[in-house]
Each structure stands twice: as structure tokens, then as C-alpha cells.
Amino acid sequence: MPHNNNHPAGQPTLVYADANGNISDFPLLHMAGMSSGQFLLPKKEDFIPLPEGSELFVLPGRLPVGLDPDSGEPLLLEDNPHKPGELIQAVSAFMSPAHTAIFNSAYQTQENAPHLPLFAYTAVGWYDDRFWTTAFRCDVDVRQDSSQFNQTVINSKTQKKLKQHKNNRLIQHLGKCCLTYACPAARNYFLGRWEAPLPTSPTCNARCVGCISLQSSGKCSATQDRMRFVPTPAEIAEIAIPHLQQAEQAIVSFGQGCEGEPLLQADTIEQAITLIRRKTDRGTINLNSNASLPQAIKRLSAAGLDSLRVSLNSAQLSYHTGYYRPQKFSLPDVLESIRVMKESGGFVSLNYFILPGVTDSVEEYTALRHLLHTYQPDRIQLRNLNIDPEWYLRCIKFHTSSPSMGMKQWLEDIKKEFPKLQFGYYNPVIR
Ligand code: SF4
């Protein structure tokens, strides 16, 4: 799959939406990018065509900010240039998987504006009759590309498996994830390929500000319902064994968006892994986790866990605490889990939440370098943080002493300093 890295010949211009959500371009202003509240002019090489499968969002209560082509000054577009006085709204891109943001969309939030829901808001503009966004493809793997999914095939294969496994609550649960939420991992399970999900936990020992399965903030809604039961080791094994035995590039992953923290079900997962590895040693058994319980990691690794993906918004204690709101654990426990998994020969990925302006801030870059030197994870998954950026900055009390490096410069410097470190978006096949 070639990287679609062609760049625009000229500078994309601002786009805005009218009161009904119809999107237009405004050629008199260059599109701006936002990086922790700073309005910046993206370079041409920062742009790619809006990837297939991406969505365009209209941002309520937010006015678009563009840049004067001559002075470079940030300018606010306050109303509809075609209908003076009519309300307009800013626009952003929610990119398809495997793409990492370089800038957030640029806007000014109006008083009493609602919180934005739990998505990532990447800058988007218009040039040469198409939309351009500021991003790069960070993984060539096509496992969640929209082009890989045929709804008719998904429906028939899912219905067939649901009929065959009426008594398996977990398969029935994944049926809802597949047909209602269009979860790519659940779809791939029913299509019998690549990475399949194994959610297990209705509970969690964190209270993440941006939790997508349980939102008590009342400020925005969760994007999917959290599961309400703990599957049995047998229900889990009934999914995992045939998938690992037969699927191409087979991976099964504990820790999904529709559950709490899987480590709270370590007993069940340990028994399930034992059942699975008794039947097959093919494929990869992975755990996506907040990595809060190093002793549980030790047990699961001994049982046969191949890889651990540690979700992390920041390598700085105050920001980690501010986002995860952890219950009886903290960042040092997470780092200890990485050490334990590496010590037992396991593979460790960081599911590193990317937010331009924070990720590439000098303080965060320094903290991450220290973590990488000390704990030596094998891979960084460059996942955009799905949250209202301004709310997030307030929640973690973000501050920085100097302008951000720029996401492209950040990536280049990290790659140079850590040449063995892998970069991507997905969990890799370990065996
Ligand atoms: S660790 Fe996961 S399930 Fe727990 S609060 Fe955070 S996002 Fe939600």
C-alpha cells in the first residue's frame, strides 16, 4: 500500500460551514493549524489529501480562524461571507485509522459553546478542488482501511456466526460491536482475519477524562456502551482458538474500547490464555491496558501473553494523573509493568496519545526520551487523542515554556535518537 504522500502545489484555504452544516471554502484566507492554542501556517509537506474513510465535522459554537496570505496574521471569520450576519461554524477532519495529526483545526470558541464529543479534530482546508488535511500515514497495514470492508459480507458472516454460537455471550456482545458500532476489530473477527477483540472487563481502576466507554462527566457522551459481564475462560477460548489457528496475520487482543481495564480480570485472562496455548501456539496474544498492575502483567506473561500495549497520554506524572485520575495506582506502576513485560521477554508498545502542541512540547519530548531510554519499549503507536483539545488542556493544567517543536520535527528527532524503535498505529504480529 503506497503512502499517499503527495502534497498540494499551493497553500490550502480556509473552509467553514454555514448554519445548516454546508461546507464552503473562503479563498481570501489561508487555512491555519492549531497547536495548543497557537495558530500556525502548515508547510505544504504537512498536507496530505483527506484520506478515504475520513469524516468532516462541523464544530458548534466555534468560529474558524485563518491566516492573512500577506501578513500571516491570524484572522477570525465571524459570519457567512455570502450572507453577512449569518452564523457560521469551524470545520475539522476526523481522519481514518493509521493517520497521525500534525495540527488540530483552528478556531475560536464562543461563550457557552458545548464540549466537543470524543473524537480527534484535525485541521482541514481546500485546494485544487479537494480537501487536504495536516497529517501523515503512520502505518502501511490496511487492517482498518474502509476499503477493506464490505458490509454485505460482514452482515452475512456475522449473522451466521451469531446463530452458530447462541450461548456464547462474548460472541453475541461482539455481534453488537460489529453491527451497531462498526468496530473494525469486531468486523475482522467475524471476517476471520487479522486482529480480533477479546473484551473482558465491566470495571476499571481509572477515571479517564476521555473514557470512550464510560463518561460520568456529563460533559459529553461515551461513544459506546461498556460491557456488563465478565466472560468465562471457555467463552474467550471459543473465540480465540479458531481465530489464532486459522486467521491470516492472527492476533487476539484483550483490552477494547467497549470495556474497563482488563487487568482487573487477570484471573479469567490467565485461565483463558492457558486454555488457548494448550490448543495452539500460532498467532499473537496481546493485551491493551492502562498497565496499572505489574504483578498481574507478570502472571499473564508467564501464562503466555506475547505483547502488551500500554495506553499513555503523557510521560509526565502530573499530566498522566490529570488525565487517568487513577485509583490506587500511578505512572510509576505503569512503568514497572513495562519493565516486567520486557524482563520476561515480551513485546511492549506504547499506545501514545498524540495531541499537537502537547506531544511535541519540549517538556513532554524530554520526559518521553527519558522513558524510552530507561524502559526501552519496542514500538510507539501514534494514536490521535480523541477529546475536545481545549477541555483536555484545562483538565491536565497544561503549560509549556517554549514553542512546540512541530510534530514532523518531533518524529524525526525521536527516530534519529532511537533507531531500533518501531513506529506504527496497530499491534504487530509477534509470532
Ligand atoms: S483506562 Fe480505559 S476503560 Fe479505564 S477509564 Fe481509562 S479509557 Fe476508560
Write up this protein.
It is a single chain. Helix 2 crosses helix 3, helix 4 crosses helix 5 (266-279) and helix 5 runs parallel beside helix 6. This protein has 11 helices and 21 strands. It has 2 domains: 13-137, no CATH class; 152-424, Aldolase class I (TIM Barrel, Alpha-Beta Barrel), CATH 3.20.20. It has helices spanning 151-164, 169-179, 184-190, 233-246, 266-279, 294-303, 317-324, 331-343, 362-375, 389-395, 407-417, and strands at 13-18, 23-31, 33-35, 38-40, 47-49, 55-59, 62-67, 74-76, 88-94, 99-101, 104-105, 107-109, 124-127, 130-137, 195-198, 251-254, 284-289, 307-312, 347-354, 379-384, 422-424. Bound molecules: iron/sulfur cluster. Iron/sulfur cluster is lined by residues 204, 206-208, 211, 213-214, 260-261, 290.
Work out the helicity level. Answer: 25-40%
Could you name the CATH homologous superfamily of the largest domain? Aldolase class I
Derived from helix and strand composition plus strand pairing, the structural class reads alpha/beta
Strand content: 15-25%
Tell me the domain tally.
2
CATH class of the largest domain equals Alpha Beta
N-to-C CA distance? 22 Å
> What's the count of strands?
21
The poorly predicted ranges are: none
What is the average of the pLDDT values?
96
Q: Could you say what the CATH topology of the largest domain is called?
A: TIM Barrel
- Structural shape: globular
Q: What is the overall number of helices?
A: 11
List the ligand species.
iron/sulfur cluster
Whole-number radius of gyration? 22 Å
Largest sheet properties:
7 strands, antiparallel
User: Could you say what the CATH architecture of the largest domain is?
Assistant: Alpha-Beta Barrel
